[in-house]
Amino acid sequence: MKDTWEKVFEYASSPLHGTMSRKLREGVDIQVNEGKVYSKAVLFLGEQFVRITEDESGQKVNTYYDWEKIESVRTYSKGE
Fold it and tell me: What is the pLDDT of residue 52?
């Protein structure tokens, strides 16, 4: 399933210039395993894990997901 999840994350984000990371597209939120909904987050798609970085109250908060433990990914965006 890693290939499928990777495509979902790529669809929901765009490359962050000069890095290996990706930022969520404007107006797109993402949720992994029915957990927290992330907005304006930066994603890093590693070989064995996904890292989601958020800026909360001036602190960088990193959440890591094992590719093999991801069971669902949900994206949110406004309809037209």
Answer: 98
**Residue type, position 31, single letter:** Q
- Per residue in 20-73, pLDDT (tens digit) is 999 999 999 999 999 999 999 999 999 999 999 999 889 999 999 999 999 999
Bridge partners of 19, per DSSP, are: none
* SS3 state at 44: strand
Contact predicate 42/22, CB 8 Å: yes
Please report, for the chain, the start and end positions of each structural domain, with discontinuous segments joined by +: 1-77
What pLDDT is stored for residue 1 in this prediction? Answer: 92
Q: How many CB atoms lie within 10 A of CB 78?
A: 6
> Residue 13's closest CA among 38, 39, 43, 37?
43
Provide the token pair at 11. 């669809």
